[in-house]
Design brief:
Number of helices: 2
Radius of gyration: 13 Å
Number of domains: 1
Strand content: 35-45%
Mean pLDDT: 82
Low-confidence stretches: 102-109
Order of helices and strands: EHEEEEEEH
Shape: globular
Helix content: under 10%
Largest sheet: 7 strands, mixed
Structural class: mainly beta
Length: 109
């Protein structure tokens, strides 16, 4: 990949990700999210963020990409303003440049 890898933003209901957090998972475990196709604009060590339509509520580090799956470390709770992005359409995810922290308001947990 010639360009800098992009981070990934995924729309998901909180109850659909509850089992992917640190706690239900151990620190060395990995979780995955099913997507359409193979993500090509991101890479290992980029971040994956989950939002519920209102807030970005979780993040993790991408550890592996394969057809139909993004693998990542256990999710950690965060609370950022939602950047008003769509749900990703048919792929189930959206690429974002940069991290939400510098441009989004960090909200108290």
């Amino acid at each position: 990949m010639a360009d800098k890898p992009k981070h990934v933003l995924i729309y998901a209901r909180r109850e659909d990700t509850a089992h992917k957090f640190l706690g239900p998972l151990n620190a060395g475990d990995r979780a995955y999210w099913r997507v359409g196709g193979t993500p090509r604009q991101t890479a290992e060590r980029a971040r994956v963020f989950f939002h519920d339509g209102d807030l970005i509520y979780a993040e993790a580090m991408i550890t592996k990409l394969e057809a139909g799956r993004i693998w990542f470390t256990p999710l950690e709770s965060v609370r950022f303003d939602h950047p008003d992005r769509p749900d990703g359409g048919h792929r189930g995810f959206q690429y974002i440049e940069g991290l939400p922290t510098p441009t989004s308001k960090h909200l108290p947990r």
